[in-house]
Specification:
157 residues, alpha+beta, 4 helices, 11 strands
Length: 157
């Protein structure tokens, strides 16, 4: 039986040399104010982020940018622009992709028959829920689709 940890370890090996995206964490200090700072980097495979040592569940994805002076028709657009500016203020470069709010997936729990984040063991098969509304699909097939896309540089975000 193939385990989730074996599949993810193989994916990390296959992705060696492929570009990674930034992992950010929100910080707030009296001297520097609110900002999103870099705490690492990972390969973005849809609902999964892979580092050299961990699997993470994707949450908020944004691109660091100066909000400039614009009029916003929606408050949500203004809030999103402010979040992009926090990443820029935290040291990311203009245009960098930043993942914030991610959580560590307990791959050992999945291998033991449980679930963690988007991963679960379904009828003995390591599986991934590829969207909040979607069902589970085998993790092996998911990675077989996503890894080559990222290696070619045309992975969907």
């Amino acid at each position: 039986m193939t385990t989730a940890s074996a599949l993810l370890t193989q994916a990390v090996q296959d992705l060696a040399g492929a570009p990674k995206e930034g992992l950010g964490e929100e910080k707030d200090s009296r001297w520097r104010g609110r900002r999103i700072v870099r705490v690492g980097e990972a390969w973005h495979l849809g609902v999964i982020l892979l580092t050299d040592t961990h699997a993470l569940a994707t949450a908020e994805v944004l691109r660091a940018a100066d909000p400039g002076r614009r009029g916003y028709t929606a408050e949500s657009a203004r809030a999103r622009a402010e979040r992009r500016a926090l990443a820029l203020r935290g040291g990311f470069h203009e245009g960098d992709v930043v993942h914030v709010g991610w959580s560590v997936i307990d791959v050992d729990a999945v291998d033991a028959g449980g679930s963690s984040g988007p991963l679960a063991l379904i009828d003995g098969v390591p599986s991934v829920r590829w969207s909040q509304a979607g069902g589970f699909m085998p993790l092996e097939a998911y990675l077989r689709e996503r890894v080559p896309l990222l290696l070619r540089g045309d992975a969907p975000t």
